[in-house]
Amino acid sequence: MIPETAMFGIPQWLWTIAVIIVKIAIVLGGVMLHVAYATYFERKVIGRMQNRLGPMVVGPYGILQPIADGIKSFFKEDIIPTNADKPIFFMAPILGLMAALSSLAVVPFFNGFVVANINIGLLFLFAMSSLAVYGVILGGWSSNSKYSFLGALRASAQVISYEVPLGLSLVGVMLMAGSLNITDIVNAQSRYPGGMYITAQWLGFFVFVVSAIAETNRSPFDLPEAETELIAGFFTEYSGMRFALFFMAEYTGMIIMCSIAVLCFLGGWTLPPFVLKLMPFLGAVPGVVWFAMKLYVCIFFYYWIRATLPRYRYDQLMSIGWKVLIPLALVNIVITSLIKMLVHPTGTP
Amino acid sequence: MINQAFFFYFSAVIVATSLLAITRKNVMHGVLYMLLLFFHIAGLYLFLNAEFISAVQVIVYAGAIMVLFLFVIMLLNLRDDIRKKQFIATWPMGLLVSSGILMVILMAMLTIKTGAHGVWGIAQLERVTQTVAIGTVMYTQYLFPFEVASLVLLVAIIGAIVLAKKRIK
Amino acid sequence: MPGTYTPVGYLPVLIFLIIALGFGLGSLLFGYILRPRRPYDEKLSTYESGMVPEGEPRQKFSVQYYIIAILFVVFDVEAVFLYPWAVSFDKIGLYAFIEMILFIVVLVIGYIYAWRKDAFLWD
């Protein structure tokens, strides 16, 4: 199976590993750049929506602001509270970041470019997003502070509550695509007449978007870090680079949720067939451009919601998750399977 | 060769972390060792060509059941517990019971005979993927156990609420 | 035969996990080299809006959180049952559909019970 030597006398397996590492470096580099500029984009967008300018000082139009922020976080003093549980305090941000970053392994950015093309891609994403809760709970618990503890408690209950509708909302997509491999899901979408599953799965898409916002602790569901009540929630005691790691994990999580939305509901890197029929020259544009454009629209949507809606109360947040989204997701599953039954009554063996 | 190496790595870490998980006085540290343990069990499943089970191991055990554990632990007052010499006064009893279980397992291991090969070989699973294989078998051949599982889950919901909500309006 | 299958497709995932860990540790180490260290007691004390921290930080909390956690475990398992069903739906057809409706109905009974007993109500 493995040839002894390949190019330049270097064994084949070493080449395979080198290719994987280069791919990971590209993905990590690209995503980290996007994480940095997502913060800039957010401040600019929300600034404009509130009739302000946003960052303007560092570089022209403040374009170097994220880089300045990054450098600053390295030079900030690291404060560990005296009563903190040090090993856990140390581990929590790393665990959170690891869970967020390794989700990127199964995200295909365009046709054929994915670090790990595994059969259970979606399940891997669910597994990693269910681990993200550990960064929150452990960080809040180990800080030994009242604000952190309450923030962690709220955040973990919120995250686990919304994980159920998040998983259920994608069952409709799995039914339509018949696969858990994300590349297969995108290819199945391009064969589907609408070109995007959002046309048939609009209910699933709605449930997914709401639970994705809650899952990443973003406004209007940013209860865990409600500044007016809890200072900064579970990372109140974190400073400097450790704080930056939590911050990176949050924004990476946001990018991953947007990528799932793009890949599972909006057609990924493909264009709907009717658009290509109308404007065939668009087919020449590389797929990664469409992927990025759809992703930016989703991220903009996140900021738009943040600038528009006020924060929910905690009891409202929990009842939206359990009393509205879960029934809607179950209804969506039953309807989708019913339609599928009527279209293929005997099944296609 | 590489499979054996991975197997020994996974099993060594599983044994070590499970020992650490039950001997740490700080329960939170014990939970973290258990988290590591679940990951390595998931790794073992991968080498058994059971990727779906491996993902479920992480989603259900690490992502759901351990979170439940953490909620329980957060209520405990850890500071007093850490000062205590030992938690469980009845540990000789536990040792007796678990060595009995170990004996049973050893006896079973020595007498076990592997049956005939099923239809799901490596090549077959590679072709249809394990998730589809589980789906087709579970929802045709093992229909009844699956429906019983739903009743078990129902009992779990009702039991949790009855226990937690003693004061019903 | 057990021990004859190597999950080659998961090698990138393993490498990614290692690199992600290295990324986290590396940036912390880099910060450790660069940043100043001037600790004193007041700076290291727990933040409580400028007051001296008072009482236990980890207090008792509502039993509601346990109910949510247990319900989450149950619904998570339910979702796990749904994934292979959804993926193999083409191959099993009508039977699978009826079965799953039955499964969902049983769980909806539990769900309605939980709702009626105010398990989702926060006070």
Which topology of the largest domain in chain B does CATH recognise?
A: Four Helix Bundle (Hemerythrin (Met), subunit A)
Domain count of chain B, please report it. 2
Question: Radius of gyration of chain B, Cα only, in angstroms?
Answer: 20 Å
Q: Helices and strands of chain B, in N-to-C order?
A: HHHHHHHH
**Total beta-strand segments of chain B:** 0
Specify the helix fraction band of chain A. 55-70%
How many angstroms does the end-to-end distance of chain B come to?
Answer: 63 Å
Tally of separate helices of chain B: 8
- Identify the CATH homologous superfamily of the largest domain in chain B: NADH-ubiquinone/plastoquinone oxidoreductase chain 6, subunit NuoJ
How confident is the prediction overall: mean pLDDT of chain B? 83
CATH class of the largest domain in chain B: Mainly Alpha
Order of helices and strands of chain A: HHHHHHHHHHHHH
Helix and strand content put the structural class of chain A at: mainly alpha
Which shape of chain A, going by the Cα principal axes? globular
Describe the sheet with the most strands of chain B: none
Question: What distance separates the N and C termini of chain A?
Answer: 32 Å
Number of helices of chain A: 13
Class derived from helix and strand content of chain B = mainly alpha
Uncertain runs of chain A: none
Low-confidence stretches of chain B: none
Question: What would you report as the Rg of chain A, rounded to the nearest angstrom?
Answer: 22 Å
Family (chain B): Belongs to the complex I subunit 6 family.
Main location (chain B): membrane
Membrane topology (chain B): Multi-pass membrane protein
Organism (chain B): Candidatus Magnetominusculus xianensis
Notes on the structure:
The complex is a heterotrimer of chains A (349), B (169) and C (123). Chain A is an all-alpha fold and 349 residues long. Chain A has helices at 12-49, 65-75, 86-102, 121-142, 146-169, 171-177, 182-191, 202-215, 227-230, 240-265, 273-278, 287-308, 314-343. Chain A has one domain. In chain A, helix 6 packs across helix 7 and helix 8 packs antiparallel against helix 13 (314-343). The longest helix of chain A is centred in the first third of the chain and has 38 residues, at 12-49. The model of chain B has no long low-confidence stretch (mean pLDDT 83). Chain C has four helices and no strands. Chain C has helices spanning 11-34, 41-44, 64-87, 89-116. Chain C has one domain (8-50, 59-116). Chain C is 65% helix and 0% strand. The chains are: A mainly alpha (349), B mainly alpha (169), C mainly alpha (123). Chain A binds chain B through residues 85, 87-88, 91, 118-120, 123-124, 126-127, 130-131, 133-134, 137-138, 141-142, 149, 153, 156, 160, 163, 179-181, and chain B through 26, 28-29, 32, 35, 51-52, 55-56, 58-59, 62-64, 67, 70-71, 74, 129-131. Chain B: Keywords: Cell membrane, Membrane, NAD, Oxidoreductase, Quinone, Transmembrane, Transmembrane helix. Chain B: It is a multi-pass membrane protein. Chain B: It catalyses: a quinone + NADH + 5 H(+)(in) = a quinol + NAD(+) + 4 H(+)(out).
